[in-house]
Amino acid sequence: MARFPTWVGIALVGALSVSLAGCSSTGGKRAEDARKAAAAQGRAAVNTPRWTFAMITHSGDGDTFWDIVQSGAKQAAVKDNINFLYSHSDQAQQQAQLVDAAVDKKVDGIVVTLAKPDALKAAVARAEKAGIPVITVNSGSAESKAFGALTHVGQDETVAGEAVGDELTKRGRKKALCVLHEQGNVGHEQRCAGVAKTFGGKVDNLYVNGTNMPDVQSAIEAKLQADKSVDAVVTLGAPYADTAVKAKTDAGSKAEIDTFDLNAKVAAELKDGTLGFAVDQQPYLQGYQAVDLLWLYRYNGDVLGGGKPVLTGPQIVTKDQAADLEEYANRGTR
Questions:
Q1: pLDDT by residue (tens digit) across 61-100?
Q2: How much is the pTM?
Q3: Strands 315-317 vs 278-280: parallel, antiparallel or unpaired
Q4: Is 144 helix (H, G, I), strand (E, B) or coil?
Q5: Which residues contact 117 (CB under 8 A, 6 or more apart)?
Q6: Strand 278-280 and strand 232-235: pairing?
């Protein structure tokens, strides 16, 4: 908030410059672009050209995590005077086709997730060949550099899983169920492998159909009923945490429910003790930084990371941080 007056000042200087250039077509276009940005939300903080950036993710419908990513990306787009396009598909081939479509539109930059990197490799290469800068976000940190992306913004999924394993051990848990809701997602596999690496107990993986919540609940419930030794359930996405809580209740289990990622419901359930802990990778920051870094590259040739991912997590959050997190989650930024 302390920077807002500075942004307004910059925007006013830009607006004054545009008004002085009102007789030129460039000045008129920039004025129109600035009006569109202001109508979207807030004001542009810069007077750079109205570039178009496309973000293409592997999200399914209704995933609140990606609402938070978009919130950050859209805010950065407004600040940077960017025309922001978002599309998604949880089907890898369709996601690749969406990347191809963005290339055909000759966008000025692409942000893409690499949950299933093999399926996206050719599409990313096509963007690179067309001279379109690419930043990977959230998934695919291991493949990002090899695919030619400028940088990767997100958490290291293996490191995040290891942090969960350490936390479970610290809490005295003996057997954990790691619930994978999207088969073939390399990030999910890395998370559960990380848990198994550092956890002092045993880890069982449970594969579920994440697009069908009743089936997810039934699968977790059946596992908890069949194996009473499971004393921790780890879900890999915030929307699945509450489903796991319901499954635990119906199964009569005493297992602790923990999760990757945050949303308002997770923050509330951390606060009341329904959940043990969550792993925050700051999705708002992922969206914001990805767009902002593309703008910096277009404007000034800047690249962050030095060939390494720009990490936004992991951070273990518990009941102690829940009150603050609930406020941020309710406004859609955590």
A1: 888 889 999 999 999 999 999 999 999 999 999 999 999 9
A2: 0.79
A3: antiparallel
A4: helix
A5: 140, 143, 147, 186
A6: unpaired
